[in-house]
Amino acid sequence: MATDPQRAAVWRDAKVVSVDHHGELGVILRLDVPDRVVHRPGQHYVLRLRAEDGYTASRSYSTVSAPSDDLVELYVEKVPDGEVSGFLAEVVEPGDLLECRGPIGRWFAWDGASPALGIGGGSGVAPLVSMLRHAQDVGRPDLLHLAVSAWTADHLPYREELEAAGALVAYSRQKGGSRLDAAVVGAIADPGATAFVCGSARFTLAMESHLVAAGQPEASIRIERFGPTGEGDGNG
Amino acid sequence: MAITRGFTGRRKQAERDPRLPPGQYDVGKSWPVLTAEPTARIDAERWSLTIDGLVANPTTWSLKELKALGQDTYRGDIHCVTTWSKLDTSFTGISLDTLLEVAQPLPEARFVVEESTTRYRTNLPLDDVTGGKAWVVWEHEGKPLTREHGGPVRMLVPHLYFWKSAKWISKITLLDHDEPGFWEINGYHHRGDPWQEQRFDGD
User: Fold this and answer.
1) Which residues of chain B lie closer than 8 angstroms to A230, CB-CB?
2) Chain-chain contact of B203 with A9 (C-beta, under 8 angstroms)
3) pLDDT greater than 90 at residue B41
4) Most buried of A68, A71, A179, B124 (most Cβ within 10 A)?
5) Does A6 contact B201 at a Cβ distance shorter than 8 Å?
């Protein structure tokens, strides 16, 4: 009998159940994945688009849904000129089939049983929402502490859900806003928890520095990054 | 496999750059950063590289000592398992062949484990890092390697997915058996050949 990792590696045709837009850039896809392998919060799926001539393009997206959800929910942020995200945002409709494989990755994955600190920037909140939903499912919201940041309230996916759960929310470009700076992150650092940090390269670099400065052991920090290094970086 | 309704793609399959392995896209001039752990802060003056395990002459080099051995430049493509490829880029460092000439692998050595200062590990067959296929590098396109990209010194094994090129390399250990590293334990393929699309367990 095939193991879960082997089953997860199989490409499947998932049926798109719903497509919801969040703001100008966000798209929430809910997929019915046949013979689904149950994920752990934090794991991701790969979506692959296939043209008639055999050309394919694939990208990874974090799972937002709880393991108990019958559907797999993915959050897609449209990136400028994005071949895959643009298509998912503009063309895909309920009823379409999308090739997918997953869940993938056993590192940025929460066990749902030990203390965790989730820190997310912008669309980097997606895997943390899966952790949140799972914590609520298993009746252990006390295990998970969340701190999230976005430019403004409009730029924060799943804002209501995060606020309702008591997540620390910072808006860095909003009037009267705040940042996840060294003091704020220092106050929530918890050496006894695993820290899950997800966001852009610049965001995660800042967060890990704040955490380490506050005494969070490096070995307890798990990072999921996306996007290129910031402008002005020598390697571009 | 279903054709995706309405998807034509940016390019026709026939126009795809032949340097791109299946499922990869060209990131152009940018270079995404992917790391699962905190970014290491390493003083290049204190950094060293050790080759040990099944070798006749375990050796440790400082960066200055490595640079004194000579300089090789790789020019070509690199491929990340997360589907980006960076084409026609260059790295400068020293071929692992040169270092292994000094360390002298024993006949029973078959595999290597690369280890970083962060304790990140990745495993490879010895054949994948010998014969002009692997380097330890300190420059990218003529500039010192930045710490996000593994500076001061990282491994470069460009014919395999880039997680096999450990950032912040500090030790290379030769073994007679295969020992899965960080991503290999965490759901990724043991070898990682981009042309075979060996991305995950089970590929």
Assistant:
1) none
2) yes
3) no
4) B124
5) yes
Interface test with B, best of A53, A92, A110, A194 (most B CBs within 10 A): A53
CATH code of B47-196, in short, is 3.90.420.10
Flag whether the ipTM exceeds 0.90.
Answer: no
Could you give the CA distance from residue B37 to residue A37 in angstroms, rounded to a whole number?
A: 26
Please report, as a single letter, which amino acid is at residue B26.
D
What Å distances lie between residue B52 and A91, B109, B125, B165, CA to CA?
Answer: 54, 11, 15, 18
Return the domain boundaries, chain B: 47-196
CA distance B159 to B78: 7
- Determine the distance in angstroms separating the CA of A209 from the nearest CA of chain B, rounded to an integer: 8
Residue range A169-193, pLDDT digits in tens: 999 998 888 999 999 999 999 999 9
Half-sphere exposure for A148 (CA within 13 Å, toward CB)? 29
Task: Please give the pLDDT value at position A2.
Answer: 65
**Contact of B58 with B173, CB cutoff 8 Å:** no
- Closest-CA residue to A69 (of A42, A99, A39): A39
- The contacts of residue B101 (CB under 8 Å, 6+ apart) are none
Distance to chain A for B13, nearest Cα, Å:
5
Q: What is the C-alpha separation between A78 and A36, in angstroms, rounded?
A: 26
Domains and CATH numbers, chain A: 4-104 (2.40.30.10), 116-226 (3.40.50.80)
Q: Summarize pLDDT for A59-118 with one digit per residue, the tens.
A: 999 999 999 999 999 999 998 888 899 999 999 999 999 999 999 988 899 999 999 999
Closest chain B C-alpha to A114 CA, distance in angstroms = 19
pLDDT digits (tens, 9 = 90+) for A13-45: 999 999 999 988 899 999 999 999 999 999 999
* DSSP-assigned letter for residue A121: E
Higher per-residue pLDDT: A208 or B30: A208
Q: Which residues of chain A neighbour B32 with C-beta distances below 8 Å?
A: 201, 225-229
